[in-house]
Amino acid sequence: MGFTLTDNQENADVILFNTCAIRENAENKAFGNIGWVKNLKKTNENLFIILCGCMTEQNTIIDKIKSKYGFIDLVFGTHSIHKFPKYFYETILNKNENQKKSGKNYIKETEDIITEDFPAVRNNNLKAFLPIMYGCNNFCSYCIVPYVRGRERSRNSAEIISEFKKLLENGYKDITLLGQNVNSYGKGLEENINFPKLLKKLDGFEGEYTIRFMTSHPKDATNELFDVISKSNHIAHHIHLPVQCGSNKILKEMNRKYTKESYLKIIDYAKSKIPDIVFTSDIIVGFPGETYEDFLETTDLLKKVKFASLFTFIYSPREGTPAAKLLDPISKHEKTAWLLELLKIQEEISENLHKEMIGESLKVLAESFLPETNELLCRTSGNILVEVKGKKDNIGKFLNVLITNSKKESLKGKII
Ligand code: SAH
Ligand code: SF4
Question: Above 90 in pLDDT, residue 153?
Answer without folding.
Answer: yes
